[in-house]
Design goal:
Heme exporter protein D
């Protein structure tokens, strides 16, 4: 029995899923960074910066 097609298909699907997750994480990181920049421009600050609250 030759299992090569099944194994190659499994590796291919796994590679596609992994690549999709990496692309999604990169895109989501950029979106979150832009949202954070917009909040900081609006005057909202992070509590972790150590600056006193107004």
């Amino acid at each position: 029995m030759d299992h090569a097609p099944f194994i190659l298909a499994a590796y291919g699907i796994t590679a596609l899923v992994f690549a999709s997750l990496v692309i999604w994480l990169i895109a989501d990181g950029r979106i979150q960074r832009h949202k954070l920049e917009a909040l900081e421009k609006a005057g909202v600050s992070r509590r972790s910066t150590g600056r006193p609250q107004a």
